[in-house]
Amino acid sequence: MKISIPKEIKIMEGRVAITPAGVKTLVENGHTVYVEKNAGIISGIGDDKYIASGAIILDSAADVWDAAEMILKVKEPLEPEFSLMKEGQILFTFLHLAADRTMTDRLLKKKIIGIAYETVQLPDGSLPLLAPMSEIAGRLAIQMGCACLEIKNGGKGILLSGVPGVASANVTIVGGGIAGLNAAHLAAGIGARVTILDVNLARLRYLEDIFHSRAVTLMANSTNIEESCAHADLIIGSVLIPGAQAPKLITRDILRSMEKGSALVDIAIDQGGCAETSKPTTHLDPIYIQEGIVHYCVANMPGAVPRTSTFALTNATLPYAVAIANKGYRKAIADDPALARGVNVHKGNLTCSRVAEAFCMDYTKIAAA
Fold this sequence. Notes:
The protein is of the alpha/beta class. The protein contains 14 helices and 15 strands. Helix 6 (about 130-150) packs across helix 7 (about 180-190), helix 6 runs antiparallel to helix 11 (about 305-325) and helix 11 (about 305-325) crosses helix 12 (about 330-335). The two termini are about 20 Å apart.
């Protein structure tokens, strides 16, 4: 199979969809790998390393897209890339379609086979391709939250950890999944007072076992969310319903009840955000203030640490990419129900039920498509 890796064009996005070791694996399996010139440079991976692993370097995005049967990316395609797509191409990347009707329509019109990292789902409900980015986003959320609380950024001017004789900050984490767990680890590790809310009682028991007295666990009902957020210096929104828009659990009224200069980091922004006031920002202009609360809503948070993110992502995605390339996508998804759940669009058909629900669109089961 001919596989292409374009350079990411989202603002300040330095990740790349494959490492040289990943290229070598695909080449050893008999596939041809094209990499756009300087695609990995911000992740610290020069073209020479890709060439040494067997990749062919192409000078332009147009050449890379034109050569490919399958495109491996990190982030969703942007406007300049739609004109480069060809009918029947496999696009294997993060898509987050439930937050973007326009992109959904464009992919359907182009008759792309869109396999989304974030909806590949194992029988136990886990999301193996989203997990590494959620781990990174969760840990980054605390770093960014600390910055948001600095006075220069409009924050109340407090240190999350406190110091001897001065209380540490209150951190409320709404959503106890992979991102929330990692945020809690960092926050508790530096001494913040942590509250984690989730709707899954079994998950709360698991979190209680991990954190013991270092974090409070609460059922995520409206009362507990309102009360916990009202007293929070920093809220981390890490709510996730795979493939669907994030529910707006943090209302404008909740933010109004908080002290001015408190902060909100909305990790769920790539699925539309879990706060009523959330809107996507970029690494170049990451924060804004609404209702007196400093918001950080960057939709590609792991792009801030591209080298770590690139290697972590390839570790997870490569086995699936190899399966698609070796078997062809039809056999690969027939053999692996988890991968089949990743197929969001197929040659003009919308095959993800939660995206269809988000936009009141027609849905076709993947087997029928």
